[in-house]
Amino acid sequence: MQNLRKYLPLIIGVAMAMGIFIGSKLNFADASDRLFSKNSNKDKLNRLIDYINYEYVDDVNTDNIVDVTVNAILENLDPHSVYIPQADMGRVAENMKGDFVGIGVSFYTYKDTIAVIRAIENGPSDKAGIKGGDRIIMADNDSLLGSNLADEQVVEKLKGLIDTQVKLKIYRKGTPELLEFTVKRAHIPIKSVDAAYMLTDKLGYIKINRFAESSYREFKEGLRNLINLGATELVLDLRDNPGGFLTIAEQIVDEFLEDEKLILFTKNKRGNIEKSYATSKGDFEDGAIFVLINENSASASEIVAGALQDNDKGTIIGRRSYGKGLVQREMGLGDGSAVRLTVSRYYTPTGRSIQRSYQHGDNKDYFDDYFHRLESGELLDPDKIEVADSLKFTTPKGKVVYGGGGIIPDVFVPIDTSVQNETLSYLLRRGFIGFFVFEILERGRANYDGISKQAFIDDFIVDDRLVLEFQDFLNIRADSQVTFVAYHDVIKHYIKATLGDQLFGSGAFEEILNQSDIMIDEVIKLSEKTDF
């Protein structure tokens, strides 16, 4: 003890010296030329953020600075390496997983109340007896009334842990008292297969909107149902499909290719190559396949189209696809956020990369490529598609295909300018048609009782009076004057499709729109005259 007391002043002195030394290293009053002088590039970023946090004249949310920094770094790599903030991870994960835990309703805020558009078929709310048009007034004694309630707040109250219960109070038109329902939360699918039905006696149709974890299971179920209905030919609609999981695309291609056929291969920066081959498990290897693509079909969609085209399997129909041949891998950053980083390129079986160039110009130019295609006339004339002889490849049966920017279809179908126009895009984007249809159903939902889905699709006619009502609706609700005289019949068709969706779901929207789809018409003609 005496020895300890003897050296105590020395120990205290050393500790104070170390504190002064460490404090000097944290002195953010250093001149800028000294601040970064002895640090690596990684240390620069950390020191700068700390410096701002401690010394900047105003309070700053340094989390936002980090987000901006990460985004700036990724923007210098390629257009598809992206940062996913913590706030967005839940939504992104749900979308790619293919389900979420909730009560199973689609809704929107209508006159300050939460209006049920439709209870998802066989979901918890559907089983409990909740119907389209019902208003959710309370959830577990929390009021859901009021114009200031954001959709995110509503979702937060209706979602929850699996098998937990929520008590709902419902107003139903024509019922004097509030109805009470106890709904047990369950896994609610986010459908990636929008529709699966027969176009003709032999031609089946499946539309996939993205490649999520659940997509192959949904696709397989739809395919088996169509085979049981007599399908010997299949339309796989990948229009506007932005892609998703590489492995899911491989599984779907495997349904059509024979054993040991090459599906694709990937190559990373070290030159390591991984090849993916078809197996013997496919259910449609002997059937004829038509794949529909357009300028918004990307990534995994292009894998499917490219694998089939390069193996001389089926027919690719539509317009040149998006041109994304990069593979991303997701890495968590420890705080709930993540980065999807490009780790390799993929190549179709003939060896072509379909990734279009991103070396010239900024990311805005890259993502605005659609407008370049529109201005060049490519969307109307296949001869306007730019190809390079240096990127020419040949399939086993001698068909010439090109790399360097998307999949060029075997059969070109121009864009339908009567359907794809700014007016219709605006109406769909703002949800006006859906809101209008909901109000029509509000006035007389009982008018549609007893009508089957197929009878509605085949026989229901939207009269001109309803279209005129929609114009009056827009005059009140739209921010600016909107007229659609030139697209009268198209609007009528979309009103019917939206009515079908809100009444029946289950692919009614796509089935109705496909009745006047020029690409579908082209497929049916090919099916009728081609002997496979």
UniProtKB/TrEMBL annotation:
PROSITE patterns cross-referenced by the UniProt entry: PDZ
SUPFAM superfamilies with a match to the protein in the record: ClpP/crotonase, PDZ domain-like
Membrane-spanning parts: 7-28
SMART domains, per the entry: PDZ (SM00228), TSPc (SM00245)
Keyword list, A-Z: Hydrolase, Membrane, Protease, Serine protease, Transmembrane, Transmembrane helix
Family note: Belongs to the peptidase S41A family.
Name this protein carries in UniProt: S41 family peptidase
Native species: Mariniflexile ostreae
